[in-house]
């Protein structure tokens, strides 16, 4: 699984990347802001985006909204990592359709749990969609 880490602070990129590597995620690419991330998303296959909120040029919220409005990227899982832990910030992130939210500072276990929760939730959603789609094809089955 390829993870795109979007963070403007080099030290935080190292912390997140080292945490991901310790959890078994070694295919990591980096971007220093939302704009840089969008450029990379157009040229690289990515399975998960982990982004900071507060960045110059393009914030994590702006990035999330851009991803959600771009064909081919709109279902890409996004985890927001930020120092903004207030209820209003969490709600704003959810309105931008971020899949999960991590407040700094965090432990490797918290990040692991959020990643697993996000991926499992998407897997369940995909299975439910496949199940629902399979019944759309059953229009020719006679009723009893």
Task: Give an account of the 3D structure.
This protein has 144 residues and is an alpha/beta fold. It has a single domain (2-138), classed as Rossmann fold. Helices cover 49% and strands 17% of the residues. The chain has 5 helices and 5 strands, in the order E-H-E-H-E-H-E-H-E-H. The protein has a 5-stranded parallel β-sheet with strand order 2-1-3-4-5, with helices on both faces. Helix 2 (34-43) packs parallel to helix 3 (60-68). It starts with a strand and ends in an 8-residue tail after the last helix. The mean pLDDT is 88.
Computed CA radius of gyration, to the nearest angstrom:
17 Å
- Strand tally is 5
Judging from the principal axes of the Cα atoms, what is the shape? globular
> How many domains, as an integer?
1
Order of strands, main sheet, comes to 2-1-3-4-5
Low-confidence runs: none
Report the CATH architecture.
Answer: 3-Layer(aba) Sandwich
| Helix fraction bin | 40-55%
Terminal-residue CA separation: 46 Å
Order of helices and strands: EHEHEHEHEH
Biggest sheet, in brief? 5 strands, parallel
């Amino acid at each position: 699984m390829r993870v795109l880490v979007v963070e403007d602070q080099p030290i935080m990129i190292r912390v997140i990347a080292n945490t991901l590597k310790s959890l078994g995620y070694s295919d990591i690419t980096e971007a220093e802001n939302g704009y840089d991330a969008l450029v990379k998303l157009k040229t690289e296959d990515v399975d998960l985006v982990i982004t900071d909120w507060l960045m110059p040029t393009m914030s994590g919220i702006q990035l999330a909204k851009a991803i959600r409005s771009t064909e081919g990227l709109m279902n890409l899982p996004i985890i927001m990592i930020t120092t903004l832990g207030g209820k209003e910030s969490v709600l704003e992130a959810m309105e931008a359709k971020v899949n999960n939210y991590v407040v700094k500072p965090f432990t490797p276990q918290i990040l692991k749990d959020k990643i697993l929760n996000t991926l499992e939730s998407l897997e369940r959603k995909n299975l439910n969609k496949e199940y629902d789609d399979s019944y759309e094809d059953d229009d020719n089955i006679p009723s009893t």
